Amino acid sequence: MEELKYVVFQLEEQKYAMNLMHVNGIEQDYHIIPVPNAPEGVTGIINLRGAVIPVYSLRERFGMDKRIDNPEKSLLITNSSGTALAYEVDAVAEIEEITEKNINEMPSVASNEETIFMEQVLHIGNDIVIAINVDKVLSEDTRNMVEQLIEDNK
Fold first, then answer.
1. For the residues 107-136, what does the mean pLDDT come to?
2. How far is CA 131 from the centre of its chain?
3. Confidence of residue 128 (pLDDT cuts 50, 70, 90)
């Protein structure tokens, strides 16, 4: 049976996950440079080994206070639909290998336009963890604005 790897992370007390295939790195020592008039959810940019990468707040996307007071806060560096993007999270918990039998599609009653990026439900031990599709977190308008932000800051 095939196993898939997921990066499990926390936002407040809840655990979420991203498929490891979409995560290029995890950064814990970083400085976010604020960008005036940035697209909704974008807290700023970072310079990662010479590349300008926008930082997106998953806390804000989930309707939480976007400020993180946690020394374990981290950035998940992803390639989201061809765009390098860093997702800021409270903490990275672990990398888990999950068998297909422990992966379910998101229930239809919990799926709507606002939750379209919540793709799967993972069963990890006694926990239920929602897996996020990095290609669907940003709306098309926000993605276009993020791409323009990258272009403007090259």
1. 83
2. 10
3. very high
